[in-house]
């Protein structure tokens, strides 16, 4: 990672400069993929939430319980993230991209339950709030000169703590604990947004020196989009748990 910050020399001015075009294109691709994934998820969430025939594949209306496909849809996104993360080196750029698109689709289908559980006003309000928080922290992460590496490690440990607490509360079903987890969750993923953007900016700077082949660049962009997508979605979901009004 140290070579990501290496300067180059301008032949005309004799001063140190850092090339920007490749890094900017990389960051642009990351955000394009992220927004595309959000759009795909929103589309499929809307389609399933407003179509009883499609929804019947997920929920048995006679019993009110989820079908096998419904349960698969709920837990499959985690499998996709783990597969993309741990099999990254063995997967091609096309395979990573396909998995990311499928992940966005399945995630969107699972979000259809959210659209049914909460009022449209709550969903829109929390989505707008999440967008504002994400945007502010993304700009901060991109523009700050402070190294956020140690900050990111702390947030990662906090994230592990949140997951453990959520698992415990799954059995305790404490509304107070759920409220506290949601508050901490918003703070953690808001902070991770700035950290992830800075990390991606450094990766983009490293690409300026031609050390990574084009196929690897695409894979890095898609995985970067996945990280930011997860940051945004989790901010939105935790805000919804805090402020969402149920139908």
Write up this protein.
With 247 residues, the protein is mainly alpha-helical. The chain has one domain (19-243). The chain is built from eight helices and four strands; from the N terminus they run ββααββαααααα. The strands form two sheets. A two-stranded antiparallel ribbon has the order 1-2. Helix 3 (68-86) runs antiparallel to helix 4. The model is unreliable at 1-18 (pLDDT under 50).
Task: Summarize the entry for a quick read.
The protein has 247 residues and is mainly alpha-helical. It is built from eight helices and four strands.
User: How many strand elements?
Assistant: 4
Fraction of residues in β-strands: under 5%
Mean pLDDT: 88
Q: C-alpha Rg, in Å?
A: 20 Å
How would a crystallographer describe the biggest sheet?
Answer: 2 strands, antiparallel
**Helix segment count?**
8
Strand order of the largest sheet: 1-2
As for the number of domains, it is 1
User: Which structural class fits the helix and strand makeup?
Assistant: mainly alpha
Which runs of at least 5 residues are low in confidence (pLDDT < 50)? 1-18
What's the N-to-C terminus distance? 49 Å
Helix content: over 70%
The coarse silhouette is globular
Order of helices and strands: EEHHEEHHHHHH
